[in-house]
Amino acid sequence: MSDWMQEKLHPHHAQALKLDRVLYDSETDHQRLKVFENGTFGRVLTLDDVVQTTEGDNAIYHEMLTHVPILAHGAAKRVCIVGGGDGGMAREVLRHDSVTHVTMVEIDAGVVEFSKEYLPTLSQGAFDDPRLSLVIDDGAAFMKTTEGGFDVIIVDSTDPIGPGEVLFTDTFYGHAKRALAPGGILVTQNGVPFLQAEELTNTMRAFQALFADATCYMATIPTYAGGPMAFGWGTDGTSRDTPLETLQDRFAAAGLDPFYYTPEVHKAAFALPAYVVKCLP
Ligand code: SAM
Fold first, then answer.
1. How many C-beta atoms lie closer than 10 Å to residue 265's C-beta?
2. What ipTM was estimated for this complex?
């Protein structure tokens, strides 16, 4: 198996991807960073041997964490991305002309620099967009002190191990809620509930204590193995109820040409399987 990358994120389940060509493999100040080529997924970025993103399927993840809250909100101008070092999330947020300012808070400058060089198809120039402010800091520390006023906050974190752990705490969620403008929406990556049910339950418990509308929505991303991934959704507004026709109008006006997102998928993503409903406290 020496020419395969094995991701052992879970105690009884692993996935393997063929290492067709390793392009980079080194330690940053925070984590072990690797990029390799794979015949199915193109270039693959791993941190501590856990898949973060791939050229092949990243659009599903990035579109669902950006277009869903931004089009549901309907007038999002100020967006904050926590994590997101590969630039894929910034790329999708900046497709919205309505967005005037994006603050991206990434703990690891190494991921950003590296992604610019080895994964330019992820950011597609987003780091050069004048609407983007890049802050190199711990997202939890930033959220504690920011003046906020964000219409949408997107947590594009690693799993709750290592530097990403603080981004799954009640304290962080509380600070993020305070940083939202009225009607603002917080969305989070919450793992694959078939394998990481506890992670979703913990986030949902915190969200239910903080927000009038707390739930999750889902999408299947092939390299996040084990079934559909859950995205946390928290807001005091009513944007989850935005009618399909309104989403269709906003989608057409935004001029997007997504790989995965449609307004119909947007609405359907909030329909949860019974085993996921049981994860919600
Ligand atoms: N979607 C991926 C997944 O779940 O596999 C994760 C994407 S990757 C862009 C996540 C980013 O979060 C990494 O660049 C990592 O450096 C960053 N990160 C981890 N902990 C962080 C923290 N406390 N503050 C800010 N960024 C953090």
1. 17
2. 0.96
